[in-house]
Backbone:
């Protein structure tokens, strides 16, 4: 029995075993998650907040490089009340643990499980292994690669490797999404900040780099970054003058941030330009 056949059979049995004919099976996309063991708990917590926004077939890939070659699978259904339908609906969760060399064959395992004629997203937890078989093959399968560069230890250098994928698939960065309220605040301060020379950011390095890259790309000139690390962006200043975020802007949860990226299909040219400009000295 093939892995794909076994998974589809197990899902069918779960649906039949539920015994509730009112349960609606609905899928708006295939959502792949690459989650090494150290990221798995956080990934599953984020996914739990997505169901009502994005009913999907979710495929969680857990690489286990030190395990023997092979694949272990687990399937389950998650049900919830979808307000727009007023009915209980279900989405599917497939967890594949990839042992040893099967990590490199991730795309071949995923392809038969994709829902036809629906968009395919992958959320890559941690730093992607740029240039690896597993990333390259999956990048050719998905419509959008979603990362959070604040999870990476080697910024800004890693942005140079990420930029090589911009012509390969659409790319989203949750760190970029987190900067939106600060970009709006900086835009509101225009044109008074048109001559700025230095941006100060107290927050994650990724957010600071992308904000600075955005300003460089818009102004088409150098802007220096002064950075202090913090868990979230707490303060932004232009040449020593503090910028306040819009009062109505509240911090979004990880599920809300990811949900926003799953609503996008086209490339984000502004993000791509900001990422590349963040590499400038």
Residues:
């Amino acid at each position: 029995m093939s892995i794909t056949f076994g998974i589809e059979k197990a899902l069918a049995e779960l649906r039949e075993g539920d015994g509730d004919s009112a349960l609606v099976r609905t899928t708006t996309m295939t959502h792949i998650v690459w989650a090494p063991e150290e990221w798995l708990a956080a990934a599953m917590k984020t996914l739990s907040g997505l169901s009502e926004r994005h009913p999907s077939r979710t495929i969680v890939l857990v690489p286990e490089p030190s395990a023997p070659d092979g694949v272990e699978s687990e399937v389950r259904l998650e049900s919830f009340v979808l307000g727009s339908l007023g009915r209980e609906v279900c989405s599917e969760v497939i967890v594949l643990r990839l042992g040893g060399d099967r990590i490199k064959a991730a795309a071949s395992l995923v392809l038969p499980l994709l829902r036809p004629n629906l968009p395919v997203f992958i959320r890559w937890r941690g730093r992607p292994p740029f240039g690896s078989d597993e990333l390259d093959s999956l990048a050719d399968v998905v419509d959008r690669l979603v990362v959070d560069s604040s999870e990476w230890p080697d910024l800004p250098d890693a942005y140079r490797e990420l930029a090589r994928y911009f012509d390969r698939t659409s790319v989203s960065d949750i760190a970029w999404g987190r900067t939106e309220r600060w970009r709006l605040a900086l835009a509101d301060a225009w044109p008074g900040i048109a001559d700025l020379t230095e941006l100060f950011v107290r927050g994650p390095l990724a957010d600071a780099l992308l904000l600075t890259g955005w300003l460089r790309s818009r102004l088409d000139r150098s802007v220096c970054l002064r950075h202090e690390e913090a868990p979230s962006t707490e303060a932004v200043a232009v040449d020593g003058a503090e910028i306040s975020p819009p009062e109505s802007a509240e911090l979004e949860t990880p599920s809300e941030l990811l949900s926003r990226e799953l609503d996008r299909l086209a490339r984000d040219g502004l993000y791509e330009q900001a990422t590349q400009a963040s590499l400038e000295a």
Remarks:
- The chain has two domains: 3-142, 177-252.
- The chain is about 35% helix and 25% strand.
- The first strand starts at residue 24 and ends at 25.
